[in-house]
Write a structure and sequence with these properties.
Order of helices and strands: HHHHHEEEEEEEHHHHHH
Largest sheet: 4 strands, antiparallel
Oligomer: single chain
Number of strands: 7
Number of helices: 11
Shape: globular
Strand content: 5-15%
Radius of gyration: 22 Å
Structural class: alpha+beta
Strand order of the largest sheet: 2-3-7-6
Length: about 425
């Protein structure tokens, strides 16, 4: 049996990709700005920052992004964006990915709730919340899941009762990433207990820094505690902070989940490419690159990365030509299911390649070289290598943003036309 040789990454398989001249001109503008504003030595081989330098960079970078007009640059000009075209937005994402430069001030703000407010919010809400997101002045968390309402999100029990000009909120949320840092939570809560469960839900923008909101970190195996439990006890929220109308929260939330499940068309696959390179290099170093099973598994990973890349280009082409034939939810579900399951399997391969070394704190390359995770062993309270930290995180990727089982339901029902999943008795 012939086993293919692991291939280099980053080639286009003979395809020549051409972008419009205006987009390529814009690419030059972005490259020049990055070279001028990133720290000295950023593009040098082996560049690293000390923890103090990294902290200073993280604190100053959002203001630089805002000054350059790069945060949410595809948003309409009237709401603080630059009104970039689809192709300009793609080029922007590509150049930041090439430079390995952070492009977001706050993921939950500019990628999830910001676009949701743009689509569903009132003019007053847009004027109040969007500028702060753009400037990096507000941090957000997502209050969807509950202890007994995860995949069956519509069964949530958190309530909001109108009291004059405010909603009074009681209940519990869980797996609330960055809840301990957030200024606001975009919260799903039941506002009409007498309606069918999908119909009586509202989408609220709730201040987190107030009495009645308690946040507790949930410590993970790698020592981090970015996932939180949040308890609401008579917490308050302005009446006008409902997005999309009272009792219309389910439809609004599906828009947010579609944003979360999507991936950047021509950049989403790149972090997996980096991990593939590290796996090949380690297999060579450990003398197992000629092991038939290791080679075959590496080639499987490589093949799936290329599928992800090509599907991204197909999605971009369909968007530019306005020829998409799948719903946004179905397309996002398919992509999210594919890459999260691919990555989970790939990190199992990484453990096999490293062998017993995987248990060492200093296994693998230096901090930051495993793009699947932002964890830093010098910050986490648990001694774990960057590669092992990435492995831990990969276990959760098939869960957040909707479990793989839920994604299969969406694809089955909306793409394949299969019957809806039978409901349990009494629902």
């Amino acid at each position: 049996m012939h086993f293919a040789k692991p291939l280099p990454v980053g080639n286009d398989g003979g395809m020549e990709l051409t972008y419009p001249a205006a987009a390529e001109k814009f690419r030059g503008e972005i490259r020049a700005w990055l070279k001028e504003n990133l720290p000295a030595g950023w593009f040098d081989a082996g560049f690293q920052m000390t923890p103090e330098e990294r902290k200073a960079f993280n604190e100053s970078w959002p203001a630089k992004l805002y000054g350059g007009g790069w945060i949410c640059a595809t948003w309409p000009v009237e709401y603080g964006g630059r009104g970039l075209s689809v192709m300009e937005g793609v080029v922007l994402a590509e150049e930041f990915a090439n430079a390995k430069a952070p492009m977001r001030a706050d993921f939950f703000g500019d990628t999830l709730v910001g676009p949701t407010i743009l689509q569903w919010g009132t003019e007053e809400q847009k004027k109040e919340f969007l500028p702060k997101i753009l400037r990096g002045q507000s941090r957000w968390c997502q209050g969807f899941s509950e202890p007994n309402s995860g995949s069956d999100l519509a069964s949530l029990k958190t309530t909001a009762v109108l009291d004059g000009d405010e909603w009074v909120i009681n209940g519990q949320k869980v797996w609330t990433t960055q809840g301990h840092h957030a200024d606001y939570c975009f919260l799903l809560t039941r506002t009409d207990p007498n309606s069918p469960k999908h119909k009586g839900i509202s989408y609220l923008l709730v201040p987190m820094k107030q009495p009645g909101v308690e946040v507790r970190g949930i410590v993970q195996p790698d020592g981090t505690a970015e996932f939180c439990e949040v308890f609401f006890t008579d917490a308050r929220c302005p009446k006008d902070n409902v997005v999309g109308g009272v009792n219309n929260g389910w439809q609004v939330a599906n828009s947010t989940l579609a944003f979360e499940r999507g991936m950047s068309a021509t950049t989403g696959y790149r972090r997996f490419e980096e991990e593939y390179k590290l796996m090949v290099a380690t297999a060579k170093r450990r003398g197992i690159i000629d092991d038939p099973m290791i080679r075959q598994r590496l080639m499987t990973y490589y093949t799936k990365i290329q599928i992800l890349r090509i599907n991204g280009l197909r999605s971009l082409t369909a968007t530019v030509n306005k020829t998409k034939d799948l719903s946004v939810a179905a397309l996002g579900a398919s992509n999210k299911m594919f890459w999260s399951e691919m990555h989970k399997t790939a990190l199992e391969l990484a453990l096999d390649i490293f062998g017993a070394e995987a248990m060492l704190v200093d296994a693998g390359s230096d901090i930051g070289s495993w793009p699947g995770t932002s964890r830093d062993k010098r910050r986490a309270g648990y001694p774990v290598s960057p590669m092992m930290s990435s492995f831990f995180f990969s276990r959760s990727e098939t869960i957040w943003g909707g479990t793989s089982q839920i994604q299969r339901n969406i694809v089955g029902e909306r793409v394949l036309g299969l019957p809806k999943e039978p409901k349990a008795s009494g629902e």
